[in-house]
Amino acid sequence: QKEVEQNSGPLSVPEGAIASLNCTYSDRGSQSFFWYRQYSGKSPELIMSIYSNGDKEDGRFTAQLNKASQYVSLLIRDSQPSDSATYLCAVLERADGLTFGKGTHLIIQP
Amino acid sequence: DTGVSQNPRHKITKRGQNVTFRCDPISEHNRLYWYRQTLGQGPEFLTYFQNEAQLEKSRLLSDRFSAERPKGSFSTLEIQRTEQGDSAMYLCASSQPRGRSSYEQYFGPGTRLTVT
Known about the structure:
The complex is a heterodimer of chains A (110) and B (116).
Chain A: E1 4-5, E2 11-14, E3 19-25, E4 32-38, E5 45-50, E6 54-58, E7 61-66, E8 71-76, E9 85-92, E10 99-100, E11 104-109
Parallel strand pairs in A: 2-11
Antiparallel strand pairs in A: 1-3, 3-8, 4-5, 4-9, 6-7, 7-8, 9-10, 9-11
Chain B: E1 5-7, E2 10-13, E3 19-24, E4 31-37, E5 44-50, E6 53-57, E7 65-68, E8 75-79, E9 88-95, E10 106-107, E11 111-115
Parallel strand pairs in B: 2-11
Antiparallel strand pairs in B: 1-3, 3-8, 4-5, 4-9, 5-6, 7-8, 9-10, 9-11
């Protein structure tokens, strides 16, 4: 049974600070890792993908992957109120269906 | 490049009725996925197509659920004899065929089903 664990939050971060979101996964065969952002009542929006150990940066977002520890994280720098959403971690073993965590509810306080 | 589209966006039905949802993927994407999401949960994988072939089905996809992608373009998901437990957001996603980014899945707006 593949599992993806996230702290459901809410995680409250002051505007302009760094938000740090974490995720662990159970399946060592997982090869691809994704972060999605989901606003209330909307569908998930892909914001980052990462496939190799280390860091990947895209604008204000940095994804970090440590396969040995089975750990993925997302850092959001200079957090804005518009970043307030639920962030979903998802993992993929092969070219099939994603396994999602329950998501972390992030609140950016103005 | 238009995104994934889904119709209808909302569906209210009575228990026992059949419903059908449609998904149109991004035009060059040959992989199409169906997920279901309930409140407070992440999306759960239901089934996956590569072109017209249905390659994988989750245990969540009971006999009352059937999905098709007859010409390898749009897909339909049918739920027969709906139950109140089927109430959820049904999400469709697609992915492109080449390179590492072929694993990135892009979601449509979803169809919200309410079974009364």
